[in-house]
């Protein structure tokens, strides 16, 4: 249904920015080179044939033991053309950073904070990259596959909280 | 355009505004004010760090996470079926809709989403729409109560209780339903469900008309709702706001209509849309949506066919209890499904349904084992809560109460 989006992407970006495209269970997806992340997203939003004006979701996936280890997963939707697309931006384990989409869709702000909080992916250019679901003194990133489910966190002293604020 | 529309509304109602006295000449300085995380006017654990100039809010930092229960991390360690109880606790005033959303995502991965028994699909629609009515009733009742209309709260909760009692007959629980199963639903509807639901719909109609009479021309209520907390259509798009809040801005997007799932394409219903995007629009959209849900229920009760309620696939559905207790084969099959879990082929899917607050998405990654590699929920009220930081500055402190109430932030869903 949204094959046209993938066709537009591959036609527009010929410099190897689109690494791979595919379709599964009715979801079209494209894997985007990390440095073209914002450029591709802006193009999808503004191009009259794709018109992805609605930001739907941004999250991460930890593909532990494969490289790139982290995928930032972005879901977009076009209200006017009624099609969707999923974009992956791969981040290697030793440098989990990617450009922030806050300048393209304001709403990306909280979703990127959540991906940072739970996976430790840093978003370059994000205006306020704080933890959102966890508390500031939390150690580690809980949705990483090497974070044990039963792990205990150190007790936070009141003096630490006051020093942090 | 929206301001003239607002003025026209007030002329129709016969309201006359007091003269604007302008800003007072008293010197003010910004004062930090902390609201929450436990505040009587906030039916959710959320903290707002405000900066106020007199009564006006100059900046708002919304802090969520107080009800974070590690839904995703727990899901990665649970079998596909064991996740249903976790989904109940996402939006806990319409748990059936979450059950349906999750079940549909897994069914897509299994490739059985087109092969569901028709009766199961109808049952899902019926319990889902009943939950939607209870969701909206709770939201409207609680918000009205916070504005002083306690009677409205009692009326709304009375009607919600009828629905909860009926759903309790269906699945045995008021809130934590866990009613859906992968491939269908757990049990068939109880005897006499049809007549009871019709009766409840009729009584709820009366309650809704009573509520409308109490508040819709009420000056106190309208003054705190009209033109307060305006969300623009552009913001709704940029923040991904869907559901009643998104539709109140004029964005006519309803998953049931635009991407029909289950049997929604067979029903005749309308999608109410607001014009201004203020609190009152959100209120009115929710009221109208309840009437539309009743229309769907009326049609579904007429059209529901007899038949099985879960797919007849021994790899997915449990054998009948009589078989399990009387034959060793069925006992082993039961044991395998309970202990190993259903085996879902590797793949990734994003499945979305219309929940009480908007597009409830499940992005699931399966690696082919009995447990998901990743089970992400895209909570609809997360987006709506995020926009508060932009909407609140410029309003009065007292405006937080109706605005926050009409956003309908549900802690369990927003924080997961």
Structure notes:
The complex is a heterodimer of chains A (165) and B (416). Chain A has helices at 3-12, 37-46, 108-119, 158-164; strands at 18-24, 27-32, 54-62, 70-78, 83-91, 97-99, 122-124. By secondary structure, chain A is α/β, with parallel strands linked by helices. In chain A, the strands form two sheets. In chain A, strands 1-2-5-4-3 form a five-stranded mixed beta sheet. In chain A, strands 6-7 form a two-stranded parallel sheet. Chain A is elongated and about 55 Å long. Chain B has 416 residues and is mainly α. Chain B folds into two domains: 2-63, no CATH class; 84-316 and 383-405, Cytochrome-c3 Hydrogenase, chain B (Orthogonal Bundle). The longest helix of chain B is centred in the N-terminal third of the chain and has 29 residues, at 118-146. The model of chain B has no long low-confidence stretch (mean pLDDT 87). Chain B is built from 18 helices and eight strands. In chain B, the strands form three sheets. Chain B has a three-stranded antiparallel beta sheet. In chain B, strands 6-7-8 form a three-stranded antiparallel beta sheet. Chain B has a two-stranded antiparallel sheet with strand order 4-5. Chain B is globular, with a radius of gyration of 23 Å. In chain B, helix 5 (118-146) runs antiparallel to helix 12 and helix 6 (150-171) runs antiparallel to helix 7 (193-215). The two termini of chain B are 38 Å apart. Chain A binds chain B through residues 24-27, 29, 53-57, 59, 61-62, 73, 75, 79, 82, 84, 86, 105-107, 109-111, 118, 131-135, 142-143, 147, 149, and chain B through 63-65, 68, 70, 72-74, 76-77, 108-109, 111, 235, 237-241, 251, 253, 258-259, 347-350, 359, 361, 363, 365, 373-374, 376, 378, 382-383, 386-387, 390, 415-416.
């Amino acid at each position: 249904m949204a094959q046209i989006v993938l066709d537009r992407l591959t036609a527009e970006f010929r410099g190897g920015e689109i690494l791979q495209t595919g379709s599964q269970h009715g979801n079209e997806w494209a894997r985007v080179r990390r440095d073209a992340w914002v450029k591709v997203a802006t193009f999808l939003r503004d191009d009259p044939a794709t018109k992805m004006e609605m930001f739907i979701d941004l999250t991460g996936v930890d593909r532990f033991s494969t490289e790139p280890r982290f995928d930032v997963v972005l879901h977009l939707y076009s209200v006017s053309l009624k099609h969707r697309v999923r974009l992956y931006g791969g981040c290697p384990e030793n440098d989990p950073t990617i450009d922030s989409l806050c300048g393209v869709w304001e709403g990306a702000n909280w979703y990127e904070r959540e991906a940072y909080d739970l996976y430790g992916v840093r978003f370059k250019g994000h205006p306020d990259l704080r933890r959102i679901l966890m508390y500031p003194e939390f150690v580690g990133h809980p949705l990483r596959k090497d974070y044990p489910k039963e792990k205990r966190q150190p007790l936070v002293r009141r003096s630490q909280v006051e020093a942090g604020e | 355009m929206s301001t003239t529309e607002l003025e026209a509304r007030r002329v129709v109602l016969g309201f006359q505004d007091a003269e604007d006295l302008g800003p007072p000449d008293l010197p003010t300085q910004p004062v930090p004010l902390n609201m929450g995380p436990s505040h009587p006017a906030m039916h959710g654990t959320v903290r707002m760090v405000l900066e106020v100039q007199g009564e006006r809010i100059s900046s708002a930092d919304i802090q969520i996470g107080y009800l974070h229960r590690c839904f995703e991390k727990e899901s990665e360690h649970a079998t596909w079926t064991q996740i249903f109880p976790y989904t109940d606790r996402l939006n806990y005033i319409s748990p059936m809709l979450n059950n349906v959303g999750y079940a549909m995502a897994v069914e897509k991965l299994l490739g059985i989403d087109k092969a569901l028994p028709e009766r199961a699909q109808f049952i899902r629609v019926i319990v889902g729409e009943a939950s939607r009515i209870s969701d909206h009733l709770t939201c409207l009742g609680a918000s009205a109560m916070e504005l002083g209309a306690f009677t409205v709260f009692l009326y709304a909760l009375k009607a919600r209780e009828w629905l909860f009692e009926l759903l309790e007959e269906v699945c045995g629980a008021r809130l934590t339903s866990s009613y859906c199963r992968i491939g269908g639903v757990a049990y068939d509807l109880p005897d006499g469900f049809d007549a009871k639901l019709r009766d409840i719909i009729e009584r709820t109609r009366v309650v809704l008309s009573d509520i409308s009479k109490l508040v819709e021309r009420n000056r106190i209520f309208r003054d705190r709702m009209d033109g307060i907390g305006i969300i623009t259509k552009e913001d709704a798009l940029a923040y991904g706001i869907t559901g009643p809040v998104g539709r109140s801005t004029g964005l006519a997007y309803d998953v049931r209509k635009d991407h029909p799932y289950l049997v929604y394409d067979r029903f005749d219903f309308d999608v109410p849309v607001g014009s201004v995007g203020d609190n009152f629009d959100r209120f009115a959209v929710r009221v109208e949506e309840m009437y539309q849900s009743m229309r769907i229920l009326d049609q579904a009760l007429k059209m529901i066919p007899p038949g099985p309620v879960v797919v007849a696939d021994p790899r997915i559905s449990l054998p009948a209890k009589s078989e399990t207790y009387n034959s060793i084969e069925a006992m082993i099959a039961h044991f395998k499904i309970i202990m190993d879990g259903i085996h879902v082929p590797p793949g990734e899917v994003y499945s979305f349904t219309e929940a009480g607050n908007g597009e409830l998405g499940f992005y699931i990654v399966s690696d082919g084992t009995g447990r998901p590699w990743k089970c992400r929920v895209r909570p609809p009220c997360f987006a709506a809560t995020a926009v508060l930081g932009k909407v609140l500055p410029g309003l009065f402190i007292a405006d937080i109460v109706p605005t926050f109430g009409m956003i309908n932030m549900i802690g369990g869903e927003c924080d997961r």
